[in-house]
Write a structure and sequence with these properties.
- The complex is a heterodimer.
- Chain A is mostly helical.
- Helices cover 75% and strands 3% of the residues of chain A.
- Chain A has a two-stranded antiparallel ribbon with strand order 1-2.
- Chain B has a single domain (23-324), classed as ABC transporter involved in vitamin B12 uptake, BtuC, CATH 1.10.3470.
- Helices cover 76% and strands 1% of the residues of chain B.
- Chain B has helices at 2-18, 22-47, 56-73, 80-99, 104-123, 152-173, 176-186, 188-193, 198-224, 229-233, 235-248, 255-274, 281-296, 300-324, and strands at residues 134-135, 226-227.
- Chain B is mainly alpha-helical.
- In chain B, strands 1-2 form a two-stranded antiparallel sheet.
- The chains are: A mainly alpha, B mainly alpha.
- The interface between A and B is large, with 48 and 49 residues.
């Protein structure tokens, strides 16, 4: 029974991994940029939740949308002020721009909030459900379900709407998209906005049951890399499946090898993927 | 230009005699050590254009092995240096071999993931001191322990290593391999179409870079006599190498040295002003500098200087022509 319990917990956390990793994979697939600051976007979402609960006494229905909107804007600002200028520059500039941004945001949070862990009050989403002997906390359940719905929603947005087709067109062939009257710059900004929004809502969701600290973004973004590599770069359905897989693997290794080693197994999985199947589960070879 | 080189070289040689206080000599040794680390990163990140954000893994291995040799076998710490280099090369192959066949971003992501993996493992492994770390010999038993009270012997040791590394880099950048590296940095596909074995030469750059980064780590623990997971494998260790190389000028011979001369004293000042890493203000500034460099001056200060002097000489020419007419 404990085993099923551990897997259920892993799946619910994995759903949140899938949500923020799909933003990471969207950016990668569209413009070949790795956002090292993506974990810090999630971290900002978590602190927004903390601030709104502590100072404005808002609930999840307040801080969820607020984090989404704030990070959507931040994504767009980062794109226009930074990314569009380095995107065709040397690799050094591409990688260091988001890496430096990650460092900046992480230590800004450190400066403002100190290194002490913060948590949200437990009565925000109270209760534990007993489903056939498996105990599931309401915050985890809400986070997992919302994350899956939103990830599927992002996939539908990309594949079933006009904006989505334009986004994918730019990803496919920037020149050809321009000839069709699509503005690549605007589409890429929207992609950064969507990616940021996904990170923001993911942060708000896990803040309800996870510790909040300035450095939480680092392990999150590395987990995101593993999810994106396993799912195949640029693939949102891949990120969904891989997120759930990574969540379960992490949860099982925390159970088997102790919580301090859960990330070791996940990072080792990353190296293993690169050696064995670099194109991921759903990716195209030679990506 | 030649007299400038001689003056700067002489200044580095005489520096410990020009300052009266051990504090300044120690800062000088710190500058040289940071320059060694950043120059080692520069071989791979600057010349070959492969951006590692996890070079701390090599630095940490280099720093741990000497103190392990001392604390478990009572050997002089220096005995651990060659083994550290061998292990670093092993890690370089594990990370480099699969990722160098793929797009460059995979390498960057793999370096930071492996560096974090190693940091967590070391931090929970009692054999290597877990979270508390390892100590070197408290008092020098023989001169082989390389444990000196004064920073001056370290200063000259580091100066000699840096000179050797820069000489090697200078030689390599003029060699066939140096041209291959720059071709790879400019564009892998064109380089490959011209017959450059891209993956192989990237791996050579990584191996060289890893070996010297490991050596830098060993020199660090020889001088400091103490190492823990954060100071060996922490992400800020990688950040320091990157920012110093990029600030001075990645892919230039003297860029990392210039970056170290500027940044290490600045770090000493900000740390004493803001109380160490405690408030994080130093790293907010670091992050800001990296972003601004990436956005406006990816070539670093040396590139800025080169363009400024070109602009100046062009301007002077136009003025002369106008006067002549």
């Amino acid at each position: 029974m404990t085993f099923i319990q551990v897997i259920a917990g892993g799946l619910l956390l994995g759903a949140v991994y899938a949500l923020f990793s799909s933003g990471l994979t969207l950016i990668w697939g569209m413009m070949n940029v790795i956002n090292f600051a993506h974990g810090e976007f999630v971290m900002i979402g978590m602190y927004l939740a903390f601030l709104i609960v502590t100072y404005l006494h808002g609930g999840p229905l307040a801080f969820g949308p607020a984090a989404t909107a704030f990070l959507f804007l931040l994504g767009i600002i980062v794109y226009y002020s930074l990314i569009r200028h380095v995107i065709r520059g040397p690799m050094l500039a591409q990688i260091l721009s988001t890496f430096g941004l990650a460092l900046f945001l992480r230590y800004l949070a450190f400066f403002i909030f100190s290194a002490n862990f913060k948590t949200l009050p437990e009565d925000l989403l109270p209760g534990v459900l007993n489903i056939g002997g498996i105990l599931i906390g309401v915050p985890q359940l809400v986070a997992g379900i919302v994350a899956i719905v939103l990830t599927v929603g992002l996939h539908l947005l990309l594949t079933r709407t006009a904006v989505g087709s334009q986004l994918l067109a730019v990803a496919e062939d920037r020149q050809a998209a321009m000839l069709m009257g699509i503005r690549p710059d605007r589409m890429q900004a929207i992609a950064w906005g969507l990616s940021g929004a996904g990170a923001g809502i993911a942060g708000a969701l896990i803040a309800t049951f996870y510790y909040i600290s300035p450095t939480v973004g680092e392990s999150l973004v590395l987990t995101g890399f593993v999810v994106v590599a396993l799912g195949g770069f640029g693939s949102v359905p891949g990120a969904l499946v891989a997120g759930l897989v990574v969540g379960v693997i992490q949860s099982l290794s925390a159970y088997r090898f102790g919580p301090v080693n859960k990330d070791v197994v996940v990072y080792a999985l990353f190296v293993l993927i690169l050696w064995v199947r670099p194109e991921g589960l759903f990716g195209k070879a030679g990506a | 230009m030649r007299w400038l080189g001689i003056v700067i070289g002489a200044a580095f040689l005489l520096y410990p005699w020009l300052v009266t206080d051990d504090f300044y000599a120690r800062t000088g040794a710190d500058v040289l050590l940071a320059a060694i680390g950043a120059s080692a990163w520069n071989i791979l990140g600057g010349y070959a254009g492969q951006i590692s954000v996890g070079h701390a893994m090599f630095f940490g291995i280099g720093a741990y092995l000497p103190l392990l040799a001392y604390s478990h076998m009572g050997l002089p710490p220096v005995a651990g240096v060659p083994l550290a280099i061998v292990i670093s090369l092993g890690f370089a192959i594990v990370v480099g071999l699969p990722t160098f066949r793929l797009h460059g971003h995979y390498f960057s992501m793999a370096t930071i993931a492996v560096a974090e993996l190693v940091r967590i493992v070391i931090g929970n492994w009692d054999f290597v001191g877990a979270a508390t770390g390892l100590m070197g010999p408290a008092v020098s038993r023989t001169w082989l322990d390389l444990s000196f009270r004064s920073p001056i012997p370290y200063y000259y040791l580091f100066l000699a290593v840096l000179a050797g590394l820069l000489l090697l880099t200078w030689h390599l950048q003029r060699s066939r391999m140096g041209y291959y590296w720059r071709a790879i940095r400019a564009g892998e596909r064109p380089a490959r179409s011209l017959g450059v074995r891209v993956a192989r030469y990237k791996l050579y750059a990584l191996l060289l870079s890893a070996a010297f980064t490991s050596l830098a780590g060993s020199l660090y623990s020889l001088m400091v006599g103490f190492i823990d997971p954060e100071s060996g494998f922490g992400i800020l260790r990688s950040v320091e190498m990157i920012i110093i190389a990029a600030l001075g000028g990645a892919g230039t011979l003297f860029g990392p040295l210039l970056g170290a001369v500027l940044l290490i004293p600045l770090q000493t000042v900000t740390n004493s002003l803001f109380g160490g890493g405690g408030s994080g203000l130093t790293y907010i500034i670091y992050g800001g500098i990296i972003v601004v460099l990436a956005r406006f001056e990816p070539g670093g200060l040396l590139d800025l200087w080169r363009r400024a002097s070109q602009w100046w000489s062009r301007r002077r020419e136009t003025v002369t022509v106008r006067h002549a007419a």
